[in-house]
Amino acid sequence: MSFAMGKENDELFKIQRTSEVLEFDGVCNEALWDNATLLPMQMFIPNHGDKTTEISEIFITFDDQYIYFGGRLHYSNGATIKASTKKRDGIDGGSDNFGILLDTFNDNENALCFETNPTGMRSDFSMANDAQVNIGTLPFNRNWNTFWDVKTAIMGDILHIEMKIPLSSLRFQEKDGRVIMGMSVWRTIISKQEWHVFPLVTNDFGMLGVWKPSQAQKIEFVGLKRSNPVYVTPYVLTGIEQKSELNESNSGYKMVNDPKLTAGLDLKYALTSNLTMDLTLNTDFAQVEVDDQVVNLTRFSLFFPEKRQFFLERSSIFTIKTGYLDQLFYSRRIGIYEDDIVPIYGGARLNGRAGKWDLGFMDMQTADHNYYNSDEDYVEKIESTNFGVLRARRQVFNERSYAGGMVTSKIDINGNYNINTAMDLIYNPFKNDYITANYTHTFDSDLSYSNNFLNHGKFYFNWKNRSNVGLNYDLKLSRAGQYYDPQMGFELMEDYSRAFASVGYGWVYSQPDIKMLSQEIGMWVWLNKRNYDMVTDIFKSSLSYSLSMKNGYRARFALMQSYDNLDEIFELSDDVFFETGEYNYTNIEASIQTPTNKLFGLKAQVTAGQYFDGTIVTFGPAELTMRPSSSVKFGLNYQYSQVDVNERNQHYKAHIARLKTDFTFTTKLSLLMFFQYSSDEKFGINNIRFRYNPKEGNDLYLVYNGEYNSHLNRELPELPRSEANSILLKYTYTFIWGK
User: Fold this and answer.
1) What's the rounded Cα separation, in Å, for the pair 232 and 265?
2) Where are the domains of the chain?
3) DSSP 3-state assignment of 455?
């Protein structure tokens, strides 16, 4: 069955129900597909709006248990079908991919995505904030997982795909027997660097347009009913941890064994079709990958993304951004302290949508923890603490605008508290312009309340045009008071007033005879003042140019001018520091990315120029990727940083090297090895993870983590080669009641 789509994506596209039975074998030859709704695909890149070079028969239907997607993807030559990985969540741009985006609540901001390639691998991820991100970051979180399945088959010159998503894995709102969602579909043919999509979304946003829920086609299901099963996932973990400690005479180190045997439980239950409750007891995150080490050449804190599954589902509900990376709630404040894992007794999480309201609630309780500060050589007692978040917001004015509030609370067992309240607004006045405004206020037991309430709060305002084509602009204004301290949030700086403004112009080329895909010029300025004396301490400006080619090459160049006024000594390392005073300096940046459809792929960045009253050269992060087959992938990442202050004979050099190796024997069996070394921290990390995942919710992990020292004689007594290591075995199994 075909459908003639209207001109606007908000015209409803009705999905036909099926009564046929699917033989789930990866081959679309059942009657179910002949009667399903056929989706008309069009070319997105390289030549936007052109007729596709290959035929795509893509279908969608549903019954009482599943939403089904099917595909018969034709190729002129089946030998060009390409798959670079079988790894769960391993989509890397080197495969022919087929993906679905579902804005299940039709809120134009959040979505769930399901993607596969010719091997039948499963990759699912969540989208937030309408895929709006900062430069250099990605709009999705691939650590989110749910229950669904896919099978594929290559038959001659046709790639067959059958995908089924349980209704119980989705959250949606039903009204008068109707469910309306947003949907986008894409197919990539990597040998041609082509993307085919439904609907034909605008290219105003570049590649992000494919993943923007606000651009998705509105689809309608009649009679879609969600079952509410209970997911109960117990786990058992055993193993041994070893850590080096000084011996009784303080003359050397000994390894201390700490055997592990523990168990816990996660429970998920949909209270309604649109509200979900999660419970966790004795929470453990042993299978989570370690963070990449980073050389920090700035005066600001580093931001690391959340990878723990419990915090990820519809996590954007709890997000109120108050700056470039600043946000009121940062879930890594729970259960992590200075890279130490803090035990979590348990907690509860509720999130969903009711009418035009988004609702979220979270409460977690951590245990006492002794943290050893090796730099200062003392033990810090971390008290058992309760972490709470309450969030509510509502659609206002139009379907892309929201107003609401949030409360975060951190209360330890002694009654010490840090509470923050916030009001926020996201307003879409027209087309691609968005206004974001919020105010957050801190209440802290350690502080007496001052007469000026602004000293305890933070104000943030942003007016941004989100387009990548034509004129775009971005204005940010913020002020954080002296006593503003969101201890459950993330802040780059303290006690400041800031203005940021950028303007740019972009071009996209759809003509077949033009090899360039897009180019953009832009400039920005950042002005930062200290509140206590209103002196400008940071002023930076940048002029940049970026381009993308239709064959997959990308490059970016930038010239940056900086002014810093230091009111205290900035210690870059033990060997390099910068005195208080004013500094003006200039540097350049350049980056390049090669196509992802080759055996080798490269991403590299170089920065060079002045740095305060010295010079700087950094190479990287540079990543060389090799994909010899869908079962093997190698990734070598390297960064070199050098700072020289010749006038004071101060010099700093740092190397970071990472080797990531993926062996994916099947889509269910994998071995991942990660080796990392940092000369700056003078230590290395090994992380080896064996995973057997026969089906979603059933996992066997065998994990080895090791930390080792280099430069052993930098302290007395001499440091041990092995700082710590552990080997852990974890098994989880999900019981589903009430399917």
Assistant:
1) 7
2) 13-222, 294-332+393-415+422-487
3) helix
What is the pLDDT, as a whole number, of residue 31? 87
Peptide bond into 199 cis (omega under 30): yes
Contact 567, 517 (CB under 8 A): no
What are the residues whose beta carbons fall under 8 Å from the beta carbon of 648, sequence distance 6 or more?
Answer: none
Q: What pLDDT digit, counting tens, does each position of 223-282 carry?
A: 888 778 899 999 999 999 998 888 888 888 888 998 989 999 999 888 876 788 999 998
Q: Which of 639 and 450 is assigned the larger pLDDT?
A: 639
CATH of range 13-222; options 2.60.40.1190, 3.30.70.2860, 1.20.1080.10, 1.10.260.40 = 2.60.40.1190
Q: What is the DSSP letter of 376?
A: T
Taking alpha carbons only, the member of 410, 428, 268, 282 closest to residue 352 is 268
* Residues across the chain: 739
The better pLDDT of the pair 716, 117 is held by: 117
The structure tokens listed for 323 are: 């700056």
Percent of the chain at pLDDT > 70 equals 96
Upstream peptide bond of 628 is cis (omega within 30 degrees of 0): no
CA atoms of 82 and 241, how far apart (whole Å): 42
> From residue 276, how far is each of 320, 360, 390, 417 by CA, in Å?
21, 10, 15, 28
Query: Which residue type sits at 515?
Result: K
User: Has residue 696 got a pLDDT over 90?
Assistant: no
Please, are residues 526 and 507 in contact by the beta-carbon 8 Å criterion? no
pLDDT in the model for residue 2 = 37
